[in-house]
Amino acid sequence: MSAPLNPKSWQYRALNELNPGLDHLSAGLIDLVEQGHPVVAGSADLQYSNGLVSFARRHPDRFIQFGISEQNMVSAAAGLATAGTMPFVATFASFLALLCCEQIRMDVAYTKLPVRLIGHHTGISLGFYGTSHHATEDISTMRALAGLTVVSPADGPQLRAAIRASATWPEPIYFRISRGRDPQVYAEDVEFEFGRAITHGEGSDITIIACGTQVHPSLAAAEALRADGLSVGVIDMATIKPLDADAVRAAARSRIVLTVEEHNILGGLGSAVAEVLAETPGGARLVRHGIRDEYSLIAPPTHLYAHYGLDAAGIERIARESLA
Amino acid sequence: MQTQSSQTPVSDPVSLADRARFVRTETIRLIEIAGTGHYSSVFSCAEIFAALYYAVMRIDPARPDWPDRDRFLMGKGHAAVGLFPVLADLGFFPKELLDGYTRLGSPLGDHPDMTKVPGIDFSSGSIGHALSNGLGMVLGGRFHQRDFFAYVMLGDGEMQEGQVWEAALSAAHHRAGRLVAIVDRNGYQLDGAVDDIIGIEPLADKWRAFGWEVREIDGHDADAVASLLLDLRDRPADAAPVCVIAHTRKGKGVAYMETEPGWHLGYLAPDDAQRAIEEIRGESA
């Protein structure tokens, strides 16, 4: 028998090519190449998972396959940056931000080299692949590295815009991106500005500050709360570092500030916001929503998002409890 | 800042062996300023510094960021104290900076910092990264059609770091012919003899098995090191990368350091420092 008979059977590569997922990643890199930038992309045996295969096919001379050697890839990216290229290297966020943390610190951040690190499949998006593949500490570790910019786009178009915008951003960047199946928040032609939060309405009762995959469900939760007459604002904190402190101080005019992140609430977005609020006189009460300092369970991703309240219904519930 | 002893005079012309003696005596002078430092780690690779910087590498001290320059990286960054005098001697930065070695605000510390020191091609301090950094440089050079070399000096203890072998696999796969690893095979690391800590032999066979061309040489014959490294420049850019295993003596040049691995890190009080300098210069009995 040369192939499975049931059309429901599938294999990894073909599925990823049919459903490119992170196609905005490659699209953003191709944009930069077309603008004349010396982009070089590297992957550590995950070009189908992160969609860089389409970049590699378009620009094979600009793609470096590092194999399963993530630390080598990060250190080599630093070397590439010293030789006048614009390196983007990608692997699962759990490996990039933890396994390669010291290479990022020593070779990328301390050296101030314009390396672009793409940590994909963040948070609990890898579901039942388990704790090894969950990235619920990457914001905290990357945020702790001096001089490293940390960006968490809400969807594909914002990712692509952020990649384009990175061409003129002088510092090394950690992009925290999901798996490319996230509902779209922004139009394809959205622009991106590093360090600038995107405010989706202001609210006197509660302001939800979210990043990454949690922006879309936060907007949906806000709609449900507004339908009940509540005054609700939502801030997409797409740049976690440098944090838009003005946006946080503006949010502090609400009775409650609710941070929502697919990450441990210790050290992540909630902590970054807390640092600003603690220094803001008369600041609002803060509620941090996310993974509560635990290793997340094994389940399909949608089940996990529901279990941890990291969907619209869960965020709405936490918001109502906070206001009660 | 007051210097504690005068800088070794360098007459011109001088042999590479003289340059290596200059590296050693300057190392003693700088460590005296710092109060502690890695004497014997420098002494094993002094001839390699001399060969690279005075005979082999294509560099321009007036243009430390020259894109076509050859690069030098130190996996064993703790030997930087021996490199700084060379860079100052060549004019990458004023020699007076050496006199403030490790003092508050100095760009010169125990490990090299590319953001602070002209002529340092990559920062180091965490052992095991440098071969990957050098690989990236060579791949970047290839991208821009620049034909420079990256020379990466690795400690033999550094062979115990896993990332070295990730980089070795990767460089061989990518045919990084402009990448040259130089292993300073001095036999010792901080806790003792490398082969007692975690053995690395058969080292040449390991590199060959990883797809590298291997050359072995007496690392204290500066002219032979220079000659070998110059010969290697004629290979095609897409040849296999080369590993030069330089057989050296930890502490070479000061007799009691050659027999006591504890001198990996230490301090010589001024009179001992002076005696060591005299021994290196061949002035002692």
Architecture overview:
- The complex is a heterodimer of chains A (324) and B (285).
- Chain A has 324 residues and is of the alpha/beta class.
- Helices cover 37% and strands 18% of the residues of chain A.
- Chain A has helices at residues 12-18, 23-34, 52-58, 70-82, 93-99, 101-109, 138-143, 156-165, 215-227, 245-251, 269-278, 301-307, 312-323, and strands spanning 39-43, 63-65, 86-92, 116-120, 149-151, 173-176, 198-200, 206-210, 232-236, 239-241, 256-264, 285-291.
- In chain A, strand 11 (256-264), helix 11 and strand 12 (285-291) form a beta-alpha-beta unit.
- The longest helix of chain A has 13 residues, at 70-82.
- The mean pLDDT of chain A is 95.
- Chain B contains 12 helices and 7 strands.
- In chain B, the strands form 2 sheets. In chain B, strands 1-2-3-7-6 form a 5-stranded parallel sheet, sandwiched between helices. Chain B has a two-stranded antiparallel sheet with strand order 4-5.
- In chain B, helix 1 packs antiparallel against helix 12, helix 3 (46-56) crosses helix 10 and helix 6 (130-143) runs parallel beside helix 7.
- The radius of gyration of chain B is 18 Å and the shape is globular.
- Classes of the chains: A alpha/beta (324), B alpha/beta (285).
- Chain A binds chain B through residues 38, 40, 61-62, 64, 66-67, 69, 71-85, 87, 102-103, 106-107, 110-112, and chain B through 67, 71, 114-115, 121-126, 129-130, 132-141, 143-144, 146, 150, 162-163, 166-167, 169-170, 173-174.
